[in-house]
Protein 1
Amino acid sequence: MPHMGSSEKQRERGAALVMVAAAMFVLMILAAVGVDLASLYMVRNEAQRAADAAALAGAKMFVSTGFTSGAISQAAVQPLARQAAQAIGAQNKVGGQPAAIQASDVTFNFTLPKDPRITVVVQRSSARGNAVPTFFARVWGWLSADVRGTATAEAYNSSGGNGPVPCVGCLKPLLLPNCDPINTSPANPSCPGGAQGYFVDPATHDIAHPSVIGQKYQFHQQLVPSQYGVLDFSGSGGAGLRQDLAKCTITRQFSCGDSVPLLTGAKVGPASQGIEDMIHASGYGLNKGQDSIDPTTPPPFTMKAGSNNPDVLAGAVSAGSPIASSDSVVVVPLYDGTKLSPGAGSVTLTGFMQIFVTQVNHQGGDDNVEGVILNVMGCTQSPPNTCQTGGQPGTITPPPAALIPVRLVQ
């Protein structure tokens, strides 16, 4: 066997070193590109989260302004929804910078009846002078990259039976009649005590008068035109009423067409106590620590925290500060308005109302409840118990204390 000389060994070792060096160089390139790609992927996710939050905030404005129920026009709601999307978007960081959403980044789609949509684009790009800088890739001239996130959200109102049936959770056991004491035409012949109109038109299942949004509403347990009933949600009679009013204790969801039992008797004591607990009032009447609302301005109406608001007690906000949500905002069911006989079987739900409860006054045998109407929704009657198991096809579930669901659609 021929003997390898030292010069040949040195040449082989030199070739191996070159190969190792080349491999290390390639690995460094791949690692550098990997670091930049991972960083850009993270920034892209941040852009998507900002777009999601902004789109949902804009869609929520469709509801809080009453647009989905016809209270204001498309021209009026667009700047409000755009401002909400921009404000919420800016609270999210994209690559260390607040998301900068321009007016042209927010577009609207009103082609679907009662299903307005808003699309928000969050982007950082070289065209805008805020592209995301790279790190290692700068060595090869790749100085920056564009990132983009897009989200579309909708506010869906099922009034008129245009789509899926709403399944309402956290429903309060206060049954209100479909009797509007302000807008008396066309008259609802089922309402006792005189001429009253409809909140929900029984023919179209739509809101009869969008002008009711912001209307002050007073309802009683005594037999008067705005008599309300009390529902037996817990199945334990009056024993569970106070808790049912104060908290979301009922896991069942409700839909139009559901049949629910009435409580026997007025239960005025537990009713007034439960409503006080619900709105965090320390007594009957106004200014007892509960939140307040100003319906004199155009919607969305300004809500302010009361001294008993849980966030005020926790030190998160101060009393009198504007708030975006309140435990005083509740959803209650509607029925046709016929005279109630407490304990006489069940009633069929024909719609729902979202109301801001301002106060309760216990007067003798009556609990007089006052509030401001925020929204009304009717729908075609669905088979009873549609929402018992939850998540069935053709149903939508709004979040607690909401009436019209807001959701991302892409």
Protein 2
Amino acid sequence: MVRSLWTAATGMNAQQTNVDTIANNLSNVNTVGYKSQVAQFKSLLYQTLQTATTTANGDPKPTSSQVGLGVRNSSINSIFTQGSLLSSNSDTSFAIEGAGYFAIRGADGETNYTRNGDFTWATNGNGTMILTNQDGLPVLSSTGTTITLDANRITSRITISKDGTLHYPDANGNPQSLGVTIGMYQFNNPGGLVRKGDTLWQVSAASGEALNEATNNNVVKSRMVQNYLEGSNVQVADEMVNLIVAQRAYEMNSKAITTTDEMMQTANNLKR
């Protein structure tokens, strides 16, 4: 079997994954809280062409004689650099400066995490209001509970401090703490978080358990900013360059297959 056919085919498959990753980044360039991804590759097995380690004269060879058998995708890593802060007219728009994440309780009862602070107040059906994301999932406080307010509160008058504590003005217009803080959590290895879609992340064994900034003094505290959202960290210019490089690599692997086919055809025609 001709090695170059299969080697070039693995290259085409790998570059297709690369293009898929780049396309996903570009499609999420305006997604709030999105973190870009980059595909990583590693070589496959190597085949030893000559087992002897000496020359025809019996002298030891300084190098080995091996040929590679292609490439495969090793991982798709997330880039966790800070995205740009985008101004928002909504009073329930919150951005995090730092390594923190918001906590969201999913429909299955599990806690998910996100950098998307595009929240809203929703009535809870029992005379109270809760802070939710745009899908209606409740945002959790620093104690891991739902953030609930009395229905007589005017939500547009609620402000937050840099640590996420909610404040409401008193009769004199001075903000007073409501005793509720929007939770911010960090991870020892955010690269180990599992993407769930909708800009939500899930804890895994690789990421480690969530570290509550309110109770953990071993982390650098994040800062929460009201009336701002964190944009994606996708760099369009870089992604376009990466797309061109991936396309050229795909074309070169395709050319290697075509060249091998032509060589095989020439060899088959030698008997004529």
